[in-house]
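#struct-pred
JK: can someone run the complex with zinc ion? inputs below
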Amino acid sequence: MNATSEHPPPDSQDKADAFPRDAVIISAATTGSWPTKAQNPAVPITEEEIATAAIACRNAGAAIAHVHVRDAEGIVTCDPRRYARVRELIAAAGCDVIVNMSTGGGAGSSANEERLAPVALAPEIASFDCGSLNFGERVFVNSPAFLGELAARMLAAGVRPEIECFEPGHVANALRFMEQGVLRPPFWFQFVLGVRGGAPATVKQLQHLIDMLPTGVPCHWSVCGIGRAQLPLGLVAMAMGGHVRTGLEDNLYYRKGELATSNAQLVARLARFAAELGRPLATPQQVRQLLALNRPPMPARPSIPNRCQPDA
Ligand code: ZN
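RT: done, structure tokens with the ligand placed:
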């Protein structure tokens, strides 16, 4: 048997999975920390429900599933066994969706050590909430010391941080971490706009955040608008060439007064708009290549150029 014909060399596989120009990455945030079935019966809570929702979102066009887990009472937890169970169920179904595990806990209600726990599972991506803010009625604390520890553990475990920025100061924090080599390229940003306490969900805010990103280094961004901003900001992001997140974590409704019937319903709507805009849907394999998932980290750069600070 000719082994080379059975298994193409890695570089030709890389070529097949090359990220298409204009492709859009859809992330599905299925559960979050706080949504309940009382608010929307379609919110997946158990590991089985979350895995089923993630698979349905993949089938509807998502490449990444952003996962939170809940305990037996439906309360947010960072229990690595539950995270592992979700990932196992997805893999057992033969689904290739990228699993992005949250390290946010309850956004102000979870202990730091608990939030670090899922990183030990070496998920392909995990969230990295790049600063503190008021979050509704809570305070979501992400101290420099905590973020340094989180970044170090992610680097050691080969986890790509999803750099979640809720306001411009969080991008400034990220730039500092980049210069220190704490965060390594390629960079993957998620702009979360519309949290009460963070940046408002406006196009102006989004443009400002994009303008702060470093140049001359692989850096990609996605937008997640909260509540009623989810669809309009998602459409803006797609029109601007960025990527987009949807799902019941961020918005329980399909349109005003009408609950979404599933996470996949929200993904499918974005997929239809993407087709109209001429943006093919990125596959998980293409995203793996773009974001260098499961690969050794790129070296730190001594200087990360960016457009928001004077040369000095
Ligand atoms: Zn989340």
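RT: quick notes.
Residues 103 and 116 are 6 Å apart (CA to CA).
The chain has eleven helices and 14 strands.
JK: thanks, will look after standup
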